[in-house]
Write a structure and sequence with these properties.
The chain is mainly α and 199 residues long. It contains eight helices and three strands, in the order αααααβββααα.
């Protein structure tokens, strides 16, 4: 089973002005494509060929760094493109809104904590909402790590590697994170992942 680069679920221009065509061309066509190519090369003699992507990520962590780094980033990006949508942000569907309030106190606090996680992730990495023990939690991880390897199910992630925002925002990571939360999140996809995580 080889990994494949998915098509973006929208046009390259669709997320402007919050994420440019140029950013998507570099981020999807160059960075994500490289993770796919590298993961396919590293899995060949790993003994993990034929396993699901989630299992490859979990089973390679701490044992096969080159495979883990690329497979995990492939996993993260498969979801990342779906966590974005044109005219995103806005109203949150009822079920996920209730779960966020029950777990984190309020939607405003959840957004603030999520942005803070992205801001305080030193260097490259991700900020997350994930489900652990039936509750939604906020976390951050370095490099390609994700909540899967910490026993949680990711339902929303934001990429804070510089290649995800530097073309559009230069060093203004706070502006990128605010734009992501306010204008780009596909909450319907977050809700789908939440429902799967608690099923």
């Amino acid at each position: 089973m080889s990994f494949t680069l998915p098509e973006l679920p929208y046009a390259y221009e669709a997320l402007q002005p919050y994420m440019s065509k140029e950013t998507l061309e570099y981020h999807h066509d160059k960075h994500h494509a490289a993770y796919v190519t590298n993961a396919n090369n590293f899995i060949k003699d790993s003994g993990l060929d034929g396993k699901s992507l989630e299992d490859v990520v979990k089973d390679s962590f701490g044992k096969n760094a080159p495979l883990f780094n690329n497979a995990a980033q492939h996993y993260n990006h498969l979801h990342f493109w779906n966590w974005l949508k044109p005219n995103g942000g806005g109203a949150i569907p009822g079920k996920i809104e209730k779960a966020i309030i029950d777990s984190l106190g309020s939607v405003a606090k959840a957004k603030e904590d999520f942005i803070q996680a992205g801001l305080t992730q030193f260097g490259s990495g991700w900020a997350w909402l994930s489900v652990k023990d039936g509750k939604i939690i906020v976390s951050k991880t370095p490099n390609g790590e994700n909540p899967l390897i910490h026993g949680a199910a990711p339902i929303l992630g934001v990429d804070v590697w510089e290649h995800s925002y530097y073309i559009d925002y230069r060093n203004r990571r706070p502006d990128y994170l605010k734009a992501f939360v306010d204008n780009l999140i596909n909450w319907e996809y977050v809700e789908q992942l939440y429902e799967k995580a608690i099923a």
